[in-house]
Amino acid sequence: MVSASGAEPTSAPDPDSASASAPDSGPALGSASAPASASVPAPDAASTSASASDRATDTVRTSVWLDRRTPSRSRRAESPAGLDRTRITEASVRLLDADGLAKFSMRRLAAELDVTAMSLYWYVDTKDDLLELALDSVYAEIAPPREADDWRDRLRDLARSYRELLVRHIWISPLAGTFLNIGPNSMLFSYAVQDIVRATGLPLERQTGALSAVFQFVYGFGTVEGHFKARCDATGLTQDEYHQRAMGTIRAQPHMREIAAYSDDIMAARGGDTVEEMRERDFVFALDLLIAGIETMSARTGTGTPSP
């Protein structure tokens, strides 16, 4: 994953001077990868993004959600008709899906919208602003679980939706643990997760640990799955072809044969004819293990009978 975090200056900006992405970090529940107010404090990596003028006055640009200032209008650019933050954010998501973080720039976005790069600064101050807006917008794709369902089923549904989001938009995983994502869609996701964990019967002091166990697992699983799939697509191989070629290379090395034989035994016992089937079995079982752990700890330390 790519890294660096910077920001575009608020006056006389260089359209491509901002960061392309963020450090490769796991999800901190409470920042962006999962519930924004549910667990541990978010890392302050996003605070490294500061405009040139901000740095001059020691004011750190922390987040688009915290610095609610009006973008500078001193750029002598005219606001194009029909352009707004929603349209800009939607175009950003399309470009990030198509080209990834490394190639994302204000100039490419302006070309996608058929406007000048300077006109984008009527709506955002930095490229990091756009990344935060895009990140929050895709959380709207996570459907809320059915309230009438048992908490276990709701947790499974939400975990699966989050995993699918990470695979569908592989660019969000390096951003998720970096930006302080407290946008509206992230907060709705946060509320849905909190509502589920309240129903487990765990005491309050144990609930954040349960959140971390489940959603950091899902974050890691979905991140690896998404990047593996993207790598296979880039090579022109299917996931099965890529896997078989890798295993064939391992088996051909004498000192690796014992490892390969054990891996073959494990995969045969797990079942599944394809990489996707095997991975799905792993995900389901791992999530069941985590839910069983929550049930056990709830029975041991809970304050009452878990709610449905």
Structure description:
53% of the residues lie in helices and 0% in strands.
Secondary structure topology:
Layout: H1 52-56, H2 85-99, H3 106-113, H4 127-138, H5 151-168, H6 172-176, H7 184-198, H8 204-235, H9 239-251, H10 257-270, H11 275-301
Q: What keywords describe this structure?
A:
single chain; 308 residues; mainly alpha; 11 helices; 53% helix; flat; disordered N terminus
Oligomer: single chain
Low-pLDDT parts are 1-59
What global shape is seen? flat
N-to-C series of helices and strands: HHHHHHHHHHH
Our measurement of the CA-to-CA distance between the termini, rounded to an integer number of angstroms, reads: 40 Å
Strand content: under 5%
Q: What would you report as the Rg, rounded to the nearest angstrom? A: 22 Å
Largest sheet: none
Structural class: mainly alpha
Helix content: 40-55%
Q: Number of DSSP strands?
A: 0
Average the pLDDT over all residues and give the rounded result.
78
Q: What is the count of DSSP helices, taking H or I runs of 4+ residues?
A: 11
Quick overview of this protein structure:
The protein is an all-alpha fold and 308 residues long. It contains eleven helices and no strands. It has helices at residues 52-56, 85-99, 106-113, 127-138, 151-168, 172-176, 184-198, 204-235, 239-251, 257-270, 275-301.
